[in-house]
Amino acid sequence: MPRIMHIDMDAYFASLEQMKNPMLQNRPVVVGSSPDQRGVVSTASYEARAFGIRSGMSSAQAGKLCPDAVFIGVDGDHITSTTSALKTIFEFYSPRVEIVSVDEAFVDVTGCTHLWGGEDVLAGHLKRTVKDQLDLTCSVGIAPSKIMAKLASSVFKPDGLTILTPEDIPAMVYPLPVDKLWGVGPVVTKAFNAVGIETIGQLATRNISDLRKRFGKWGEMLGKLARGEGGSEILPPDEQPDEKSVGHERTFSSDVGSLDDLKATLNFLADLVGRRLRRHEFAGRTITLKYRFSNFETHTRRTTLEFPTDDTLRIYSVACALLSHSYKPGRKLRLLGISVSHLSHPTQPHDQLDMFVRGPLAKPAGKIDHLVDTIRDRFGERSIASAYSRMQAR
Amino acid sequence: MKFTVNRDSLAEKLQTVLSVVSTRTTLPILGNVLLKGDGERVELAATDLDLSVTCGVPAKVGKAGATTVPARTFAEMVRELPEEDVSVSVTNNRMEIRSGRGVYRISGMPADEFPKLPALPTAGEVMLPGDQLRMMVHKTAYAVSVDDTRPALNGVLWQGNGKGMHMVATDGHRLARVTSPENRLSGHQSSLIIPPKALSLVIKILGENDADLGITFGEKNILFRVGDTVVTTRLIEGPYPNYEQVIPSGNDKRMIIDGATLMAGVRRVAVLSNSLTRQVKFSLSKDRLELSTTNQDIGGEATETLACRYDGSELEIGYNANYIIDILKNMESGDVVFELATSVSAGLVRPAEEAKTSEYLCLIMPLRLAE
């Protein structure tokens, strides 16, 4: 039977800052934008959480709740290096490690625990190693599937350890509300509630074919996951599937409704996406635009091109076309994103000329991108950018 | 509603309406066929909201009425029925079908929930020979764009002016234009953009039939009538790009070659071309055309030399083989003329001898060859 461990770093960004700067120890620390700007809290230290500050809350509100809190911006480089150190630690326990995000990971410990004399001993050793080497605490859950392990790690926080056997699931997991299940967002919750599914237990005990009929394959899958069935596969990195898409998005610090500002932002995002595609020698055929209104209503629009592209200008022009076909300027957006999927590794440059295209897009494809990439490789990512992308909304 | 109908004619007409019934739809009623029994006829209709088709089957109608039932299930059932005579009765949208010793029941949805189909006055109907429409659609529709960021190019432009009546399609990479001398649009519409799906449905309904078909123009719709089958489609909003502006007039390098020979050569060479770009290089020199390609992925290389008539300066130009094949497939047999200028500009392809009743022109953009 599979045994999956989920590790969730406690108040990760804030703990990192406290570790870096001892003056911040035992003080309420908020990582995110400053309270006088329009932005959100990334992480709050446990000291700050005592004041009611939570991730995702607006920084302004956090500032009101705790005027003495120290607000710090996100230090990307430090996070990246610590996350890679964590991965090395996890890999000591099992080769099957899946990094979910910068602050959480799954480790498949099936068949490894007897080497340690038990799951609790293994998890305790891992927690101590993280504390000793990085001075960070984490909460750990071990269960038969990924989704149950994630639930388990959230039971005791911070610095907790929860072990779930299949027999524990009905008593410990079933009473929890259904939205605690990974993948069940507000929309799905509402749909479940409408048919009388309020708890994970009610979902788990529903007839699978009934779930399939009402909610399709997705419903069937969630039903199985709620029972602790399936969802335990963790592949070592070299067996993990190729990237499926490359995308970037931006949440504005204040909402934006001007088409010019939005287009400049698309220009900026297309540049990031194109650069990443080319770095990995990918080209993609499907371009997806995502935008979110101030009220969190989110739309995606996509189109599939005849030929794959990694060309920044092409990605930008398609994203602009998608935006102008579906969005009426004026209504304000809080987020804009571009992703490219349907990826392949092209081996021959593809430069089909188009009779209606004039101007820079009619120039040989890839020449400008190649030059920009060369400059960035040598002088850094910020050494060169299109002037238009610099006008992006922030 | 109650009626008796011949199985084969019902099955045939159901097949026609199934062409517009989408398999995946957010509105369940769009998966249904509307049946209306009245007098001597049962009318069938289906729609995907953009494209609709209605047709009739002769029937003995015992009691007039209307309902809708799932189109695919109904069609499949009718095909399998044992006897020629099929009796259908509908009570409260539950349909009962009797044939031979079998009784089959299926639930439907009320007819008044079915979307209202656009109605156009038939007063201004224009007649067009079926073979003319078929020829014009075949010669252009292949070039319609699938790129939905340029919606106007997702349809076939039908345009009438002093020079005649044109059909044009392009995706920016190639363009096809066919012209008939007689402008039947005159007095009705100067230009409209029609979704290719509607045109191919009309052609399919026409079959081998060369009879005239009736066309009625609405502001946002167009209606085609073949016998008592009616296809209505929403038109695509323009403007269509000014394609005439991109047709070059000064291409002075002329190559004349047998179309069938060239197509066979391109097909052979293209087998080894890159599966994404389909790039085949045309190298032209005095009375000689060399086709070549390379493909790193499979270590493929091909070269083939063909005889042609050419006395311009030497020229190397890359094309997507699929585009060349599409064009040549739709040319009349015999010689074709390529009118070229440079390796990065539009080339024109036309039949060496124009057909008597129409004029055909294709434009093809090259693939830029890597330096």
Can you give a write-up of this model?
The complex is a heterodimer of chains A (394) and B (371). Chain A is α+β, with helices and mostly antiparallel strands and 394 residues long. The longest helix of chain A is centred in the C-terminal third of the chain and has 21 residues, at 259-279. Chain A has 3 domains: 1-166, Alpha-Beta Plaits (2-Layer Sandwich); 174-226, DNA polymerase, domain 1; 241-393, DNA polymerase, Y-family, little finger domain (Dna Ligase, domain 1, 2-Layer Sandwich). In chain A, helix 4 (76-91) packs antiparallel against helix 5 (119-134) and helix 11 packs antiparallel against helix 12 (312-326). The mean pLDDT of chain A is 85. Chain A has a 5-stranded mixed β-sheet. In chain A, strands 9-12-10-11 form a 4-stranded antiparallel β-sheet, with helices on one face. In chain A, strand 2 and strand 3 (41-44) form a beta hairpin. Chain A is built from 13 helices and 12 strands. By secondary structure, chain B is α+β, with helices and mostly antiparallel strands. Chain B folds into 3 domains: 2-113, DNA Polymerase III, subunit A, domain 2 (DNA Polymerase III, Chain A, domain 2, Roll); 126-244, Roll (DNA Polymerase III, Chain A, domain 2), CATH 3.10.150; 248-364, Roll (DNA Polymerase III, Chain A, domain 2), CATH 3.10.150.10. In chain B, 18% of the residues lie in helices and 42% in strands. Chain B has helices at 7-18, 71-80, 130-140, 196-206, 259-270, 321-329, and strands spanning 2-6, 32-38, 41-47, 51-63, 65-70, 85-91, 94-99, 102-107, 126-129, 156-161, 164-170, 174-180, 191-194, 212-217, 221-226, 229-234, 253-258, 279-285, 288-295, 300-307, 309-310, 315-320, 335-340, 347-351, 359-364. In chain B, strand 23 (335-340) and strand 24 form a beta hairpin. The radius of gyration of chain B is 25 Å and the shape is elongated. In chain B, 40% of the residues are buried.
